[in-house]
Protein 1
Amino acid sequence: MTRAGRSLAAGAVVLLAALGLVPLVNWIPSDLSAPWYAPVAQSWVLGGLLVLGIGLVAAILARRTRFGAPAGLAERLLGPFDPAGRLGLALVALGALALYLAIAWLVFDGRPLHIDEIVQLISARSYAAGRLSDPSDPDPAFRSLLHLVDHGGRTFGHFPPGGPAWLAPFELLHAPWLAGPFAGALSVLAFGFVLRRIEPGRSVRAAAFLLFAFAPFGAFLAGSHMNHTPTLMWGLAAVALALGTGSLRDVPRWALVGLALGLATATRPSDGIAWTAAVGLWAVFRRELDLRRGIALSIGLAIPAAGILVVNAATTGAPLTFAYELLWGSGVGLGFHSTPWGPPHTPLRGLELLNLYALRLNVYLFETPIPAMLPALLALGFSRKRERGDGLLLGSSALLLLVYFAYWHDGFYLGPRFVHGLLPALALWTARLPGVLRSRSGAGWGMAERVAVFGGLVALVMAVYGLPERTQQYATGLRSLRWDVDRAATASGVEDAVVLVQESWGAQLLARLWALGVPKGESERIYRNVDACRLEEVVTGLERAGPGVDPLPPLVAAMADSARLEPTTLSPDRTERMLPGARYGSRCIGRLLEDQGGVTLLAPHLLSRREDLVFARNLHDRNVSLVARYPGRAVYLLYQPLDAAVPRFRPLDRDSLLAAGRGSESAVPPAP
């Protein structure tokens, strides 16, 4: 590496270390913060002292015994077994698959627990049935969700098609929870092939392979329905193929590289851009591409790209218009500009987000008592050489950070999910640290290298000891989303029925804004800046005025008191806003009583497989039109009392509800 290259790499390492250790986000005035940083930093200091202390004692003892150098011990333990050989790849991938399946079923109950997962599964069901979209509800307010687009009489998810397409075959088996674990296991296989090409040291390969396969951050994501794991699978497949893995002829191999990159882009465009740019730049600088290879690569890329254009044309009506752009507007993309909601995205805010991602990654990556990225960054900082394929993993990591520096949303679920693609490089360079220290000393295995090895083992043991707490956190959270509504309906004798789901007043207001034609980004902004009762009055007036009235002027005027608003203290839904001193009429008080009586979520119940049940949002006087569409069906209210563990079905009198008619204060009495 040239002196300029080493200086650039050192600067990047210092920047990443600072982002992962220093809470800049707490020092910059904004809505972003890391309030948990102080106790975590204290645990890092204590954990670091323990790791160094125990590692030092172990290193001294090992030096005085027959165990010898750590590398020699590792080689003796491995024997003739090569973890990156065929048997090693198969065994580790199967072990990882077993772990991911256990997480998916035992921790997440085999259910989607995030709105992104739910909407992608809804799209996957459409794909599995041979459709790209579904007919819209005559009154979209009854069944609309945050990430569902209602356009041209059709409803479809706002996500790119790659994620739902990966879920669809598993949905045909009625087991979509298998999709993430299998993508994770295939990612492990692909990373094993990558290691065979770029890492000559057998013990380092073994350590990197195991770190990648069983890192808690990657394992928990692999147990979910999120699209991050399939994206990583396609990206690593492209890297493995670009490095010449396998016996494929040259030109077809590069066509497959393009196909894998295209599929990564069709799943998560931002990540796909990073992987594609990294592979392309690496191939150009290393002169891996000639005309034939370049054409093959382009053809491979064109196949998923054509699929995206077809899906866009069939859903949004324009090949180059993506569903999430149609839903949220131009401010949803990369760059520094206004956003669908919240403050504008600026370079300073981008730096805050990167700081948050790095701080979180130090916690969630390996769940160690020390900053998890620190060993990898030390190895990068002290390393004097790079292997042939290092540029691919490091380049994709750098480009991924650059992409999300320019992206406005804070992606957090099961850890900093937007930077999941850093896992391969971090696993490899973490495993390389002892060898890098040894090469710097030039005098065999010294004390620093031994402490690094034994300290790392201590850190991993301490991480395993602390993992049950994280597992319990994930296994006990979001209980209402895990509830098996189909089984509960059968147990309660609910059949051939319309089920009105009691969502919070705030969720109802948002759905009614969407039904008025207010864009979802603008709806979010209005909802966060208007007193809930005032918003109820304006929305009701607009609904009574009928179509043809522009809803925005009166809604924007209602935001005049936004600076004085506070989170409500009258409802369990703290997203509702309250104007201090405002007087609420009987209609608004009724909505608050409903919130206090117990609410639940509509989204997971739209995944019911019971064809005889129609789940819809309770919209009070508007329920009459919905119930009239299903003559002869029973009607139930589904709600969850605040002191109850699961929702409950409450039968309603169908004739009384219909007789209440439109315009009543509420056609459904509040839950007891």
Note: The longest strand covers residues 634-639.
Protein 2
Amino acid sequence: MQLVKAAAVALNQTPLDWEGNEARIRQALRESRAQEASVACLPELCITGYGCEDAFQYLGVQQQAWEMLQRLLPETKGMVATLGLPLPYHNGLFNAQAVCVDGEIKGFVPKQHLANDGNHYESRWFKEWPEGVQSTVTLGGKAYPIGDLLFDIGGVRIGLETCEDAWVANRPGTPLAQRGADLILNSSASHFSFGKHEVRKRIVLEGSRAFNAHYLYSNLLGNEAGRMIYDGGALIASRGELMAEGPRLSFRDVLVTPAVLDIDATRTAQRASASFQPRFEAVEPGLVAIPFPWPAVENEKATPPAAPAWELSPHHKEEEFTRAEALALFDYFRKNPQLHSLATSLSGGVDSAAVLSLQGIAAKFAMDELGVAGFQKKLSHIPGIEQSRTPGDFMSRHTLCAYQGGENSSAETRAAARAVSKELGAEYHEFDIQPLVDAYEKLGEQITGRPLDWERDDHARQNIQARVRAPGIWLAANLRNALLLVTTNRSEATVGYSTQDGDTAGGLAPLAGVDKEFLRESWLPWLQKEGPIGFGPITALEKVFAKPPSGELRPLVENQTDEKDLMPHRVLNMIERALVRDKQVPAEIFQRLRPELPELTPHELGNDIRKVVDLYFGTQWKRDREAPSFHLDDHNLDPKTGNRMPLLSGGFKKELETMWGVVEACAQREQEKRQARSLLAEATRPPVAPLPSPEKKAPQREK
């Protein structure tokens, strides 16, 4: 029985953080060796960081990556390790894995399938390596094999896939298996998305089953470059069974997940498989044979890994969202050494309460997992961080919030802001903005030559209130070297329901990747009543639900609400998904949603679609200026990474005209159906028997 102990590694790297990235790779290799692993699979592009973007094109960056690889080679003595880096070859740049064996580079395997959908744009920087092609590359005066390679290392055959390679139909693992691969290593940078981990797990399990091989999957961890979140979750599978699984959404820098692999067992399975057809070639192209003395390994019984309680929760999406956001926010904050605090403008509504809640949750989760010393070390750039010995200490010293009220602000929102900040322990202030609003309206009177009124100046009067709030909270943030957090959600971003240089002011928009319906109808009610495992409820959120969401920019007597200004959030989200995610034109959206929204008339639905489309195209300039946001699913509105749309366009005017013809035809058909049903009901109604005449009574004589 030949046994090999292998480790899949999750790393929290940062683009171009040469010293930090090198230290974490060293730690990963040393921890793997300490756990007696002879194989270590590290994440994609772990040397430079995955999110370098156009910095990949700098020759100096490519040279730094090569030099770091040379420095790391001694750490691979006595083991096999894959280290990812950008590799120049024939005037092209390739996303490659360096296969290091016993302290030496034995070859490079470039990625064959680049990720170019959703948030990814790999073909801007890298070229795809063609299947079945092998060559040599000369680096530092030495020639190395490069290409579609299979490594025979001490009699154990090891092949590689890189992230997207495993997601396509013609994945490289198939020919590798036909050539007798015992072990396939997948180095990934697979970003977080709701429910995506289960898809990854199926890909890994199915690959190991179909290939009759052992399969190792590594992944990045945390907020690597600012927008995308990586959840780690290393996986090791064998012949369709999960052998080991690493934790997800951890606050640690390095996570090593090991397992003992029985090489003879997979070979026996291949021989017994009727579907397995080995490839016969006199001389195998791309086979790199390397002598290597595999160390003796004691067999360990593989037991299915136990999932943490939150992964099994009936509120899994809420738990997953909470942990992804908390980790992303903590990493974004700690990776900006000039920042010492966090600042939020509280409105007393859903979005700002959610942003402040996430700060408290992030502090609690990070300190619980890292310990006080580990938490302080991660934030060691902050003066006085040693005084934060509890999450409450951190919140009171390093989170600041302010409720900025005027004459249109309600007592309910003021009370909600005060209560939530008090329960979370944040530093809280109240600013009276009405004198500033009045002063600006005086300027407006100079411009118009008349007093401003709500009938003629509604838009300007609402916006000046939102804009007046920005300088005050910016001042507070600057005085504390704080990261100002924007509270805009995706539903608002879709239609530009925000005031530029007002409530969009800030450096990061943590909620811009999630819709208002999920926040108000699912996540916040759950957070108020139950909350995430390990944190519990935030009971003060009950006050946030005292009144419907409102910008409170018009007089209180008007009972302004977001849904009155726009439409029900449910309808808005359905239109947004069809328009942005599914790339449907207005007529297609109408035909798709008409059966799903029977409570609306055809004209009401058509008007809602027209409103969303007009606002979506008309406010692209706002999204182009939005603060960076976290990506929480495979479609988003970020014009820099996920949804590139023109600033100027025809705005689907022709398409809206076409849709309105469909709306009118639908309304006519539905009217005819109603009339036909009415006539049928009238015709089939049974005759009504006449009522009997009432008996006549003799009049009574008055007494």
Note: The radius of gyration is 31 Å.
Protein 3
Amino acid sequence: MAFDPARCPHARRLDLVEDLFGHQVADPYRWLEDAGSAETGQWLDAEERLWDAYRADLPGRAEFAGRVRDLLQVGSVGVPVWRGARRFYTRRDPGQEHAAVYMSDAGDAADAGRPSDASDESAAGAERVLVDPAAADPSGRTTLDHWAPDKEGRLLAYQLSAGGTEESLLRVLDVETGTVVDGPVDRCRYSGIAWLPGGKAFYYVRRLPPAEVPEGESQYHRRVYLHTVGTAPETDILIFGEGRDKTSYYGVGVSRDGRWLTISASVGTAPRDDVWLADLTSSDPASPALVPVTVGLDAQTAIWPGRDGRLYVYSDLDAPRGRLAVADPGRPGPDGWRDLIPEDPEAVLRDFAVLDDLARPVLLVSWTRHAIGEITVHDLGTGERLDTLELPGIGTVGGLAERPEGGHEAWFGYTDYATPARILRYDAAAGRVATWATPPGAAVSPPDVTARQVTYRSADGTPVRMVILAPETGGGPRSAILYGYGGFDVSMTPGYSPSILAWVEAGGVYAVAQLRGGSEEGQEWHRAGMLDRKQNVFDDFHAAAEYLIAESITAPDRLAAWGGSNGGLLVGAAVTQRPALFTAAVCSAPLLDMVRYERFGLGESWNTEYGTSNIPNELGWLLSYSPYHRVVDGTSYPAALFTVFSNDTRVAPLHAYKMCAALQHASASRRPVLLRAEAQVGHGQRAVSLTAALAGDSLAFVARETGLMR
């Protein structure tokens, strides 16, 4: 479809140039930062009309949306959380927009660990729905953010947020009666729950009231509190957080026996944290005596007091791929650590579970090896490797769980690109892995897909891996989507994706590049793609596109770049740095103005990943790749679809507004540059129907622009 620039809404260009540490920085569309202005509203209305006109005759839109919706109807099931004979879990049935929290009372705890029928999630006992977001909001725009049963399984703390805001309200439910006995407590975004024994109180994280913090900082200033169930949150006891950086995030945990409190703190999304431990038998839970474990170290650490009296310590200190150590809780610092599972030279340590109701207790360890999951079995005392579990395929494992009181069983999730997440159970006494539960919907017949992992070289010679999914028949070059993220220590591991399956089923190729900035190869891989090394991420992505083209898998006029959030920044960099490599781009909830990103959403908490424009040399890093500032008039840019969400409280939609206006003004290619703005949804979870609609629009856009469908 030829793009007529005359059809684009008029966007006034400001003659605004600021001198920032000697850099002359233009910002012609700053007025679009004011989402409430009449002028911005008029521009958004005009952009909506432009998108609607383009979408009106877009081939394949309904078909893609319908196929994604069908593939999502398989539903979902979560790893069980055990409290005695009771198990708590999430499940989404066909036709449901969101998963709900269920409880099943298995009765005989000795029999409760047997694998259930693959489609019968209730086989081990009668079940009840405890929290269903759809019951609170039939529109599907209320999401379940977090839930945690107390240690006895009598109460359930849960958090819901409305309209995609992620602004959680915390409530407590009596499991027997279904009655809400506490809450709502507001300002609980990203809060964990750490119950004390008896269900009378818990530790949690809450932001200070807006009136108590400087203007514009209400998203920050978290604190750890102790809350007594049934009391007003205003009477909660402040435990931790005063005097720390305003962007700090906190984690809290209480051991199964209630003796040990753990608190962790990180500044924003920095790849390092501080950790403390307190013995609640020798200090008041309302004023715990916190002992430093790791404070001021450039490392990520997490601790778990074990049932055997040992302190289990995960850390990437001197081990970028992670190691598991044990220590005496009375001497928890690094000097007292003894490695139980040392760093692996190729695999990244992810999780572990202790199975101790055995003649020879064992430790299960979950790894990713070049982003592919595996689980190994070790002697609990020595760490000696005893076995490697056989998994259903080349995929991802997650959610490794055990019984809090100990046992010989562990549960974990498994998924790959064509397999909906299922729950597997490992019985260490029998040495056997079996399916525990599969999603409740009818069996999905995925299309014939081949998946292979390849290795290519980036601009500096670094080997980078990429998974390529393609139809089993036919050769290239094909219409292709190249997807990437490359940031925040996030690993691109295989996972069931209806959007990918629908695309490949239609004849396309889908490639996932495992870029620096993620955690596919551990913390060194992450740090090689952050701050002044961010260009490595973009170079890795460009090299992935070059590989696909050189191997005749696709061609520049058939290749689309796709990414969201930090991956939207990646796509923006690809479009502005190497526009000739791509014919189309889907840029979702993106960061694009890297000079001003800290002023909006949660941006200030990301300057440990990107840098800050308030420091001269760091501003130089940001300007070197900031997509909005690299748009050049008269350049032949790819077709671009920006998808944004009105209630996105992480990444402000204004990034996409400004970039869309800039590309519409500058592009000489006559390819479409479009904005799809969606109301009453946010950055995170989405209802099934909304997910399918977004996928249908985005896939159809790429299909048209890459020639898969005309």
Note: The longest helix spans residues 38-56.
Protein 4
Amino acid sequence: MNARRLLALGLVIALLVSACGAPAPTSAPPGYNPPPPWSGGQAPAPTSAPQPTAAPFYSEAPSATGESRASSDYLDQGGDIAWPPPPYPTPWPEPPSRDTGVNPFVDTREDHLSTFAMDVDTAAYTQMRDYLNSGSLPPADLVRVEEFINYFNMDYPDPQEGAFSINLEGARSPFGGEGTYLLKVGLQGKHIAGWERKDALLTFVIDVSGSMEEENRIGMVKYGLNRLVDQLGPNDRVAIVAYSDTAWVVLDPTSVENRSRILDAINGLYPMNSTNTEAGLRLGYELAWRNYRDGAINRVILCSDGVANVGNTDPNVLATYAQDYYGRNIFLSTVGVGHGNYNDQLLEQLADKGNGVYAFLDSDAAAERIFSQNLEGTLQTIAKDAKIQVDFNPYAVRGYRLLGYENRAVADYDFRNDTVDAGEVGAGHSVTALYEVQLQPEGSGDVVVVRVRYEDPDTHAVAELNKNFGRTEFQGDFNRAAPRFQLAAAVAQFAEILRYSSWAQGEKMVDVWNLARNAQLQLPFDADVAEFVGLVERAGNLMR
């Protein structure tokens, strides 16, 4: 066969192949190269360059902080696709699966989005400390990982603009086996000076039932409220409602210029009879609403051991009060005291629905921290309905697991639904979430995009910002990660062991202690870290 016939035959074969739809070889988009073989077979490259089905969610020009704002055009489309669409490369090793009551590993092929409401509560950590100091382990159902982590200062920088800075860090995990990494997602709310804080109308709703006499519960509440009043300004007002079998007004809204009158009302309270939380909440909200101050902070602060035994005691019914008055711009914070017959679920749910902070008092020092040192954060909200969405690149991540936040989950499709209730964040508060991440062995490019969306409480404008994190930004040696990162890993693992998470089976408290001790050596002036090392040792001894 001569050369001319061979050429003609080749052209015919090429035309036939093209007519059958065989794709021309192409490369994946820059930064999203499919991984090479990882489980005994060659992973085929995508047959055509995958293209996003929606416009990128980020602007091309990031801000000076490295964060970029979502464009209004994209928000109007309602899309959220950051990565090339499937099909993703195969074969694909399945992420580990265990029967567990806590967050499982999620296969990124099935769901690459993790969405949850911000939470700045710390009550679970303080309750744990109270139990350990009393010589017993905390009940597993009181342990919430996110509240343990968020107890600690993470030294995030303040935002250069807007309400939040996004701070991302990753390193190989000291737990979880080969190929497992930790990703820390940290948000820092802007601080405000005391003179910048709005005037406040605070309505204290105080439980004076008989159980408040135990363990000096009423004494800790009085100390905390005394410290709070000491920090208020002359334009702030305080009202007090007490409740036992029924509820009554102890003090109508009174200017802090009459400080002695307010303190006399607080210090004159004493325990008696039963606990009608419903009556106390109802009267407290009615008093706050009648004296509502436009443009000021309007907040109800419930102080109780949560043991409701008179009136309607259903947490869901009581939470409707908080939800209704939040719609009228009256926030609710809850402060718990005591343990044993303490009702953690009630106070957490009330604060959640009332969009405020849930804290716990186990000492005068805890009251000082909540009511004095963190006053601006306790009182003034800088972001309403704040949500976080972490978008994992399936070309770079096989699976992921969020540590904690189980009861703060938000549907992925509701991230940009601004009618959905989410979390509230006070001035200067930080929020930290930790993920276990299983990376593709040789994937490349960006691993995640973290998005934050919130409403300004004053202007009601909705803002969104985001930040990317690349594979090369993971630290391969955990011991070279920043001290605060090592601390977060130790705290999370401590909580996982205390709540008997199946993901912590076989892990030892001594390993947590070693991590905590190493973090303490690098953070020698942080009293909270030093205390944590002692608590880990105490828990380890109790678990023997």
Note: Residues 3-19 form the longest helix (17 residues).
